[in-house]
Amino acid sequence: MQVAPSILSADFGILNDEIKAICDGGCDLVHVDVMDGHFVPNLTIGPVVVSAVAKIATKPLDIHLMVENNSFFVDLFAPLKPEYISFHMEEEKHPHRLIQKIRSYGIKPAVVLNPHSRPEDIEYLIADLDMVLLMSVNPGFGGQKFIENVVPKAKKLKELITKINPDCLIEVDGGVNNKNIEELKNAGVDVVVAGSYVYGADDYGQAIKSLQI
Ligand code: DX5
Ligand code: ZN
Description:
- The chain has 213 residues and is an alpha/beta fold.
- 33% of the residues lie in helices and 19% in strands.
- It has eight helices and eight strands.
- Strands 1-8-7-6-5-4-3-2 form an eight-stranded parallel β-sheet.
- α6 links the parallel β7 and β8.
- The model has no long low-confidence stretch (mean pLDDT 98).
- Bound molecules: D-xylitol-5-phosphate and zinc ion.
- D-xylitol-5-phosphate binds next to β2, β8 and α7.
């Protein structure tokens, strides 16, 4: 299981140290939550701060867009060369076109499904994707309770992925901790995002390792 700590739960007063600590602690990706105050009721960071994060991080960035006007934000963040850019299906009229745009920048494209969205709706996109991100909370905030129905949903998605594009990864984001990591692993999940669980721990490295099962 790969682990992508979400810096949303970091102490932004000492962001430099907080990024170094998760990278030295052995994380696989650095998860960056970009919120615009429109698609979700919260506002986070833009390219100025994320470029500083990119300079400090020794692990690849996983940028999660929670915005309106995805295409505009893809152009804004692409120069920072993240490993992944993911965008929400609920907010995109032309997902197939946007996936190609992300790939044309040399970045791996991922789509995100909110808790209510169905894996079947992305069946015809799976062949073009490197990852599907399933939300296990409603997007907008760290520290929320894990929504259990992501487990059967991940299983259903895994069946589609196995049939269509076995290289495509499944990522789960929200409320992940050492109590639900095993059921996620058993459901076929490859990557987990963890914000409050990692940044709320005394030892970030140990928290990361407890999820790398
Ligand atoms: C929620 C974000 C998550 C969040 C996860 O909108 O996408 O990445 O930071 O935080 P935890 O792990 O605390 O639920
Ligand atoms: Zn996220």
